[in-house]
Amino acid sequence: xxxxxxxxxxxxxxxxxxxxxxxxxxxxxxxxxxxxxxxxxxxxxxxxxxxxxxxxxxxxxxxxxxxxxxxxxxxxxxxxxxxxxxxxxxxxxxxxxxxxxxxxxxxxxxxxxxxxxxxxxxxxxxxxxxxxxxxxxxxxxxxxxxxxxxxxxxxxxxxxxxxxxxxxxxxxxxxxxxxxxxxxxxxxxxxxxxxxxxxxxxxxxxxxxxxxxxxxxxxxxxxxxxxxxxxxxxxxxxxxxxxxxxxxxxxxxxxxxxxxxxxxxxxxxxxxxxxxxxxxxxxxxxxxxxxxxxxxxxxxxxxxxxxxxxxxxxxxxxxxxxxxxxxxxxxxxxxxxxxxxxxxxxxxxxxxxxxxxxxxxxxxxxxxxxxxxxxxxxxxxxxxxxxxxxxxxxxxxxxxxxxxxxxxxxxxxxxxxxxxxxxxxxxxxxxxxxxxxxxxxxxxxxxxxxxxxxxxxxx
Length: 459
What we know:
alpha+beta
């Protein structure tokens, strides 16, 4: 199904060029979504709908102008283009534009299987019932999110590209209480794919992990504070790299010189043990896509190799303003946003060490098994992240659980102190907010050892 006539797209682009634009692109989106909120043993809310819209961008030198609409009418699209071009007031006589459809490798999605809504609801009820087998569980919240996005991109270089992107995610949150004690646990797996991803989850293992985490933290002692070595486990532990360093490697930050790394290309910015990747090509991963929102095929980008800065995450404007080549990383929440350089699946690469080696190397410190949310200053990379599940390390062994732990530091500093990297890489789904809205991204890492970081605690 073609969303916009190529003749109309050609007329819009030709008109933009006639107004003096150096480059014009048109982004068309149709997204069908479904969201089910299950709590208190019943469906609390369900939402579904379709959004459709068109974004038009004109680039004059390094200046970008953007407008959007829900209309497909040729005259309305030309009117918006005229409004954008009027801000510059130039005129030109462009030649003919012939579109050529882009051919590119497809990122493989997890297959879909048609199931009735009644069956999907029964799966959520089953998870809810299993979690409530522990009498201390006071609340269970489950969210099922499914989205199918179809995009088309036309541009003044003659490109026409299209992609269908299916997304699916299942959130689990459990609250456990015992007298004055309270704890919670969270798990939110997601994928590019369909219902078969939910079927592939080991629901028994998910339930067991949530109950174990909540019950462990329910009676945990307060965490001591101070500077100490920390072992951060795999998976969502990668959120620290994403937030405190990854954003500083996007050209949206680099072009403004708002990143401490803007002039560090080729220099050592991390410990030699660390290699970091941003990869849009991982089959089935939540942050994967075959083409970005400018129609460029995605790729695997090595950002940091053995501690040295190798690449930035770049889009078209980023390349124009900084000279750093595009990486297939132009992304946006919807047609209402102009594209910007954004992360995809961003992770620290595997290292040589066994998990036991990391723990054994710490005489006294903290084991952050599961990270939570936090805050980051994007200009400096200064962060403050909570730890959902933590344990003390004493004499090179994991000892008692502790609660209330936070990790405080800066991205540039922590990157130099990750001295050991484990083997067991795991990726976890998340959402990332920035200048072009909220988008699906994946974070990840193997277990890593940070030689020293400030731990905030309640003790």
